[in-house]
Amino acid sequence: MINFTNCIRQNEKLHSISREIHKKIIKGGGHIFPEYFTKELYKNAFRRPLNLSNPQTLNEKIQYLKLKKYWNNESIAICADKFRVREYIADVLGFDSRDILTSLYGVWKEPNEIQWESLPHRFAIKCNHGSGYNLICTDISKFDCEKSTKILKNWLNERYGRQYVEQGIYNRIPRRIIAEEYIETKDDKPPKDYKFFCSFGKCKFLFVACDRYDDQTKYDFYYPDWTYIPVKIQFPNNGFIEKPKLLDDMIRYAEKLSEPFPLVRVDFYNEGTRIIFGEMTFSNFGGLMPFYPDHFDKDFGKLFPDIDILKKWKFSF
Predict the structure, then answer these.
(1) DSSP tag of 267
(2) How many whole angstroms separate alpha carbon 1 and alpha carbon 83?
(3) To bridge 45 with a disulfide, which of 87, 125, 288, 317 should be the other Cys (CB 3.0-4.6 Å)?
(4) What is the mean pLDDT of residues 297-316?
(5) What is the mean pLDDT of the segment spanning 270-296?
(6) How far apart are the first and last CA of the chain?
(7) Which residue, among 305, 194, 299, 210, has the nearest Cα to 251 in the 3D structure?
(8) Phi/psi at 214 (nearest 5 deg)?
(9) Is residue 228 within 8 Å of residue 222, measured between CB atoms?
(10) 241-256 b/e (C-beta count within 10 Å ≥ 16 → b)
(11) At residue 182, does pLDDT exceed 80?
């Protein structure tokens, strides 16, 4: 007699192995055949083919720009670099850049160069060439410097962008470790992260990431006038939150920094009376972020330039 439970378990195991093999193939071949593997990832995420000839949805336009315009673009790499973007901000915002940039405590090529004893009581330390490479120190006397050195070394050796075929952006970033000012909050929790989607100097919509601890991050979407958008992604919603006091100023900075670009996400924090720059991202969630309901992907896509404008776009510092 057939044991259906064992059959199901065996089938799930085979699917899991297949997915891991698929990921490794993409990581290995994405840089050589970026369009092919991007299409594979997109089809797997959305269950439909990627339209690069006339992109309509937000995710399609992100993929088009990644492959056709942002790939191997040094200006894009500078802005995606968590260290060199400071130069761009200083050039664009001038004196205002002093207020929104965190204090920089050090920059190193290798983790064994870090003099931990010279760092302040609280700080953030990260790698500059990708996302998620962050360590937070809230008390240097309790911070495991040896373990952190090993983690940073592993991160520094990673080629960020292979998972979602973004190597054309991140491979051009000279890898560094940077230590920055720790962002203080009233409740001592991670600060709310305001992420503005912009096009040629106009903010189109934003989302807010809050409760960013223990994998409990919640995301909520708004239009620039703080109208709540009833949409979700793979993460839960928090529900309507209070409009930040400095929303208009954050939008003004985001729009100024986004002026040269057809599609970019500019991130800020707003703690008390201060605005703090986070990062600039050109391939939000790798261009693989389904929306629920699905029609919002196309609704958001309509807010950004059509193919005729995207084809003509060129930019370099």
Answers:
(1) E
(2) 63
(3) 288
(4) 96
(5) 97
(6) 70
(7) 194
(8) 55, 35
(9) yes
(10) eeebebbebbbebbbe
(11) yes
Name residues whose C-beta falls within 8 Å of residue 241's C-beta, 6 or more positions apart in sequence: 192, 208, 210, 220
The C-alpha atoms of residue 61 and residue 51 are separated, in whole angstroms, by: 9
**Does residue 228 contact residue 220 with C-beta atoms inside 8 Å?**
yes
Contact in structure between 261 and 317 (CB atoms under 8 Å): no
CA nearest 75: which of 215, 282, 288, 303? 282
Regarding beta strands 228-229 and 274-281, do their DSSP bridges make them parallel or antiparallel, or are they unpaired? unpaired
- CA angle in degrees (0–180, nearest 5) for 251-255-256: 120
Q: At what angle do helices 4-29 and 34-46 cross, to 10 degrees?
A: 150
Q: How many CB atoms lie within 10 A of CB 93?
A: 18
In this prediction, residue 16 carries a pLDDT of 55
DSSP lists the bridge partners of residue 276 as 269
Confidence band for 8, pLDDT divided at 50, 70 and 90: very low
